[in-house]
Amino acid sequence: MELCQLKLTLLLFFAVCLLVPSIQAKSVSYCDKKGQYAVKVQDIQISPDPIIPGKPATFTISASAGEGISGGKVVIEVSLFGVHVHTESHNLCEETSCPISGGNFELSHSQMLPGFTPPGSYTLKMKMEDESKHQLTCITFNFNIGFGSYVADS
Hints:
Blueprint: H1 2-19, E1 24-25, E2 29-30, E3 39-47, E4 56-65, E5 72-80, E6 83-91, H2 92-95, E7 103-112, E8 120-130, E9 135-145
Antiparallel strand pairs: 1-3, 2-9, 3-4, 4-7, 5-6, 5-8, 8-9
């Protein structure tokens, strides 16, 4: 009986690992290794990972600020194999609650990539500026886009 329970437990474990969307922490690099950024990034979570074209994806960035931030913007640049493919800009206060007090905070952004987005390993560069256009941080990290469905969901 114990062998059957062990097999069932292992089967359930592998099923959960395969079926539950993964959330992975990403390795972050600062744009300027010697830069003294006011905002320090601790962690980046992407769900699902890899991102599936035509399905929602969420990027959550955990960071900390030495001082309060009343507003600003976030600029995102995406490249595939070193070739720039996309740029977008967002109001900082649409990605997190403003004003941001000194200490820990999170930025979260969700979006759906078109179903025809090519799979591959992408690099994202994110710059954050305050209302005076002073750069608060600049980071880069890699993420993957997997194969999506080219057939519309019904």
